[in-house]
Specification:
- The complex is a heterodimer of chains A (112) and B (113).
- Chain A is mostly beta strands and 112 residues long.
- Chain A contains no helices and eleven strands.
- In chain A, a hairpin with a 5-residue loop joins β7 and β8 (74-78).
- The radius of gyration of chain A is 13 Å and the shape is globular.
- Chain B starts with a strand and ends with a strand.
- The chains are: A mainly beta (112), B mainly beta (113).
Chain lengths: 112, 113
């Protein structure tokens, strides 16, 4: 297993609520990316953080936001949850952009 | 949106069979090609990161090749074992969006004893 940990592993939320997902990077990695994997799809890039700054964003609305902390851990926040936000959310850390990514096990979010 | 295609979608083989999967991607602005193995209830694990046209990499019974000019990569598994059962994902990185990986939908491999 990689040194990337995500919490919680599973979560059920109601439409309209807000959620925060957390990711602890592998030691020495200053770059964190978040991906959403909907059923039957490949992971889709949400955004990336490098040294606490957002450094690239995919085709996701502004209600998806994030943070990276000085210890390089990260949060993904989703406001005003919609049913279509139900998915597996993966966090990946790397030593630099474009390098091998080390993934966590993901957080399974269900919106009802 | 960048199209990364993987085929086949799923594959069932007998233990000892050799198998291969394909990943195709746009050849323009290519930076890197990643292969990941993803076992159920675990995190995706990197197998290979390849950047050069003609690159070939090997890890035990698994190997991969890369053709950046025509935009495809092959993953080969020699003498499949039940523990090879997993989803194999490929992803490409582009020069213009260096940190972002574009994933295919994966090939789900089941190896029967």
């Amino acid at each position: 297993e990689t040194g990337v940990t995500q919490s919680p592993t599973h979560l059920i939320k109601t439409r309209g609520q807000q959620v925060t997902l957390r990711c602890s990077s592998q030691s020495g990695h200053n770059t964190v990316s978040w991906y959403q994997q909907a059923l039957g799809q490949g992971p889709q890039f949400i955004f990336q953080y490098y040294r606490e700054e957002e450094n690239g964003r995919g085709n996701f609305p502004p209600r998806f936001s994030g943070l990276q902390f000085p210890n390089y851990s990260s949060e993904l926040n989703v406001n005003a949850l919609e049913l279509d936000d139900s998915a597996l959310y993966l966090c990946a850390s790397s030593q630099r952009q474009g390098a091998e990514a080390f993934f966590g096990q993901g957080t399974r979010l269900t919106v009802v | 949106i960048l199209n990364v295609e993987q085929s086949p979608q799923s594959l069932h083989v007998q233990e000892g069979d050799s198998t291969n999967f394909t990943c195709s991607f746009p050849s323009s602005n290519f930076y890197a090609l990643h292969w990941y193995r993803w076992e159920t209830a675990k995190s995706p694990e990197a197998l290979f990161v390849m950047t050069l046209n003609g690159d070939e990499k090997k890890k035990g019974r698994i190997s991969a090749t890369l053709n950046t000019k025509e935009g495809y990569s092959y993953l080969y598994i020699k003498g499949s074992q039940p523990e090879d059962s997993a989803t194999y994902l490929c992803a490409t990185g582009r020069g213009s969006t260096l940190g972002r990986l574009y994933f295919g939908r994966g090939t789900q491999l089941t190896v029967w004893p």
